[in-house]
């Protein structure tokens, strides 16, 4: 971070993630986020304390969410003098929130900040088409019975058909999964390789649970104490039986429910601070957030929609004078197994590294033993805005507990963007 002060990652708290329409069917973005933030406040004895800024967001929003970050900070029991800023860059939301707060801490603008995110696919807003919406506005403005009746002139029942929530890119009309299927085809990623990566994610996550790695990271919510998507008992044989989820007709589809992230509900939060602020309260410093980078690509012009992390990571490492050889832990968000595999392949490809990343030599290979050692989004699930904070919290704990020196994080986002961060172990 540019600035004179180190940015401490004190720790994190999240609620267990749940597959859509399961444990959190009656929860909302606000209730989940408040529970995660409340857990963070309890964990670090911060109830009633003023935090200099809570920055959080959700990708799927209700208008009733208002300033979600501020409302959740209040519900969680922080001092009413704690400001909240709601922001959103799709799946990169909470990692970008952390980088924004880190910049402010590094320069001395603030001393403490919480980065967080929350998303619910079970509580998506039900939206009606323009015609019915305008009728409702006319109705609310009508002053006489005649005007009220007039608002329904020419009404047809078809207008009540809700506009379904979607993960479609506005510029292409294709869903995230359809875009990733195109990427898999371009990079020659097989179904077998995708299933193997997904299986490893589940096994690594299940092992992390067995080791008790998650014990102090999770705050129970609505009776759920554990992520309910982690499948210790899945197998390549079972995965091989699953039908393509996004390319159902060509006979060549490779993305399935097993090698894609499930639609997920959840919330996660991370506490960042200056070292002085943390030490004055007797709080731990697990690691430092040292660098970040956000990048975008020309996906509408033909580049892979979820490939921008290749650029963000390349630019971040160049600015830090680091290479893959300097990194001990790689935490790459798994939107889809194919998206991770395309990214890994691109970093080894001379043409891509030269033409897209502007490098004379390739970025290189990543040791599979250093990648997503505790599992990632394919296993835990992916409540869009919460994922960055989940990964950052997990990474800081991993560096502290396994005595590794340096970690690299990347998250791809809708809209052809990528966010990357570097985390260093605290002495
Ligand atoms: C920037 C980014 O991050 S982009 C990524 C954004 N995320 C997305 O776009 C979400 C992508 N995912 C989806 O849209 C959906 O999860 C889909 C379309 C892939 C699958 O949807 P659904 O068919 O509803 O999947 P569902 O989760 O119900 O799974 C289907 C079945 O497969 C089973 N299954 C899924 N994974 C596994 C597995 N690893 N092993 C065994 N069974 C599995 C489920 O249990 C379910 O079985 P059931 O019907 O007996 O309950």
UniProtKB/TrEMBL annotation:
Query: What are the EC numbers?
Result: 2.3.1.9
* UniProt KW Transferase keyword: yes
CDD domains to which the protein is assigned, alphabetical: thiolase (cd00751)
**Gene Ontology molecular functions:** acetyl-CoA C-acetyltransferase activity
**Domain Thiolase N-terminal intervals:** 7-276
Q: Which GO terms describe its cellular component?
A: cytosol
One matching Pfam family: Thiolase_N
Coiled-coil annotation: which residues? none
Q: Where is the active site?
A: 91, 382, 412
- PROSITE patterns, per this entry? THIOLASE_3
Thiolase C-terminal domain residues are: 303-425
Tell me if DNA repair is a UniProt keyword of this record: no
Keywords in UniProt for this one? Acyltransferase, Transferase
Family, as annotated: Belongs to the thiolase-like superfamily. Thiolase family.
Could you tell me what this protein is called? Acetyl-CoA acetyltransferase
Please name the source species: Devosia geojensis
